[in-house]
Specification:
Blueprint lengths: L1 H16 L12 E3 L4 E6 L5 E6 L2 E6 L5 E6 L5 E9 L4 E17 L1 H4 L8 H6 L6 E5 L16 E3 L10 H14 L3 E7 L11 H4 L19 H8 L11 H6 L10 E5 L11 H16 L5 E4 L12 H11 L6 E4 L15 H16 L11 E8 L2 E7 L5 E3 L9 E4 L5 E3 L1 E5 L2 E5 L8 E4 L9 E3 L1 E6 L2 E6 L22
Parallel strand pairs: 1-7, 7-10, 7-11, 8-10, 11-12, 12-13
Antiparallel strand pairs: 2-5, 3-4, 3-6, 6-7, 8-9, 14-15, 15-20, 16-22, 17-18, 17-21, 19-20, 23-24
Helix pairs in contact: 4-10
Length: 495
């Protein structure tokens, strides 16, 4: 019996002595190019660890609690490489590592939606021969306090694996890779049915005005979740409180360098749009601070949906999303023509990913000739009973997509703020609108419906990517801006 006990104790000590890496380091991973490569893990206290990677060699000593970290020199895109971690009791070897661009793709169910469920899924999977595109799917969970670990492994894109990739993220990565030949890593950290608040850390949330916090703690700052749920005597749920999903699905990633963020969320905040701009702005600032980087944020606007509800709840949310463009380094991908009036989860994720990719190619990869953004409202002029609207970012020009040339989607109002559908025309690349019911207009809005039917588009243009011509339809877009109480929302199309 004594011998058995000794063996058991010896085995336990051996396990404790082994050097370890977080799960985010696994075969097939992608590391961010042109940034120092941060590697960390656990070992015995004061243990010396040797790190070998891409002709770099470093030795580091674990601290008193066994934590160790090292920063290797930044590398250009390339690979595959092998990472070796050598401790006194064991050696770890991570194979098939690529250096490229890592994008965090986050939000709720329309980001979570996998390739298995998109339109033409079988064709897409059959053609998914992109071994330089990889994904890390973060397990969906919540925690009452910030965690440092996840349990996940990287997947290399193939016809057999791509069905488990986020559809939007995959089609985004596919287009970017095809045009740049840079390996792309996707970190898919998304969870259907989540609200923006739960993706925001508690510390950041407490910087918001009290009116944004009153729903949780009237006239007080937010309590730690453990204390809050104890006081409320209820079980924690993912949407009950800020930080719960952030703690488990974002915080463990903070030491891992990324290129930028693709954000697709808002459906579960519909009906409470007014605070959304503040919360998303807060979340963006929080993530940037924690990554210590001015990460570009590409915000996918909600698509058209819910043709039955007369209250423009989805339009209000799209408006709230557009207001976040006031934050530098943010971009809006308009999708209000890509939805399904009767399905919260439209299957055309190809087009959504394409639109996001075109913007990223323009802003992050130097393809300045791509007209990737939607035309944005610039100013309006009132001339008698007519309103003349000028846009910026119009590319090669605007056009009305209608068999008969009839403009749709615009409404106009006078001082009484009662909106009436407007007639209109395209003249000198500006929109002229009017209504017999509004002799003295003061306000205009466009696509202010849950399921809008606006048909103002950009003309097609030919751009050259990777030395080959591509036909790209320029998107359209609007946001709440301007003077004279102009209310303006739009949609986009890139077919």
């Amino acid at each position: 019996m004594k011998h058995l006990l000794f063996i058991f104790l010896f085995a336990s000590l051996s396990v404790q002595a082994k050097v370890t890496l977080p799960a985010i380091y696994s075969d097939g991973m992608v590391l961010q190019r042109n940034q120092p490569i941060h590697i960390w893990g656990q070992a015995d206290p004061k243990e010396k660890i040797q790190i070998l990677f891409a002709e770099q060699k470093q030795t580091v000593k674990a601290d008193g609690k066994g934590y160790w970290e090292v920063n290797l020199k930044a590398l250009e895109a390339g690979g595959p490489y092998q990472l070796q971690i050598i401790g006194k009791e064991n050696q770890i070897s991570i194979k098939d590592i690529l250096i490229g661009d890592v994008w965090l793709c986050s939000g709720q169910s329309n980001m979570q939606w996998v390739v298995n469920n998109v339109i033409n899924a079988e064709v897409e999977k059959k053609n998914a021969n992109y071994p330089q595109i990889r994904t890390l799917n973060i397990p969906r969970r919540m925690e009452l306090s910030p965690k440092d670990t996840i349990c996940a492994t990287w997947l290399v894109c193939s016809p057999e694996t791509v069905g488990r990739f986020s559809g939007v993220a995959y089609f985004f990565a596919k287009k970017v890779y095809e045009e740049t030949n840079v390996p792309i890593g996707i970190i898919n950290s998304s969870w259907g049915g989540t609200i923006v608040e739960t993706w925001t850390s508690l510390e950041a949330a407490n910087t918001l005005p009290q009116k944004r916090l009153d729903r949780y703690n009237k006239n007080e700052k937010l309590l730690p979740p453990t204390e809050y749920f104890t006081r409320k005597n209820k079980e924690a749920k993912r949407n009950d409180y800020p930080s719960l999903v952030y703690n488990a699905m974002i915080h463990p990633l903070l030491s891992f360098s990324i290129k930028g963020v693709l954000w697709y969320q808002g459906e579960n905040n519909v009906g409470n749009a007014e605070p959304y701009t503040d919360w998303l702005t807060c979340m963006i600032g929080d993530w940037r601070n924690r990554w210590n980087s001015e990460l570009p944020f590409y915000i996918i606007q909600l698509p058209n949906f819910d043709s039955i509800n007369k209250k423009p709840l989805w339009a209000e949310m799209r408006d709230a999303q557009s207001k976040v463009l006031a934050v530098p380094g943010t971009h809006l991908i308009v999708t209000s023509d890509l939805g399904d009036p009767y399905d919260l989860h439209p299957r055309n994720k190809q087009e959504v990913g394409m639109r996001a990719a075109l913007q990223a190619l323009h802003y992050e990869y130097g393809y300045s000739d791509i007209v990737s953004e939607s035309p944005m409202f610039e100013r309006m002029e009132i001339n008698g009973d007519k309103v003349i609207i000028t846009f910026k970012n119009t590319g090669s020009g605007l056009e009305i997509r209608s068999r008969y040339g009839c403009l749709q989607g615009f409404a106009i109002a006078g001082e009484d703020k009662k909106f009436h559908w407007a007639l209109g025309e395209l003249k000198d690349n500006r929109i002229v609108i009017w209504s017999p019911k509004v002799p003295n207009p003061v306000a205009v809005r466009y696509n202010w419906e849950n399921n809008p039917d606006g048909n103002l588009y950009n003309k097609e243009t030919t751009v050259f990517l990777s030395k080959r011509p591509q036909r790209i339809e320029l998107p359209r877009h609007g946001n709440l801006s301007g003077s004279r109480e102009v209310f303006f929302l739009s949609a986009s199309s890139l077919k």
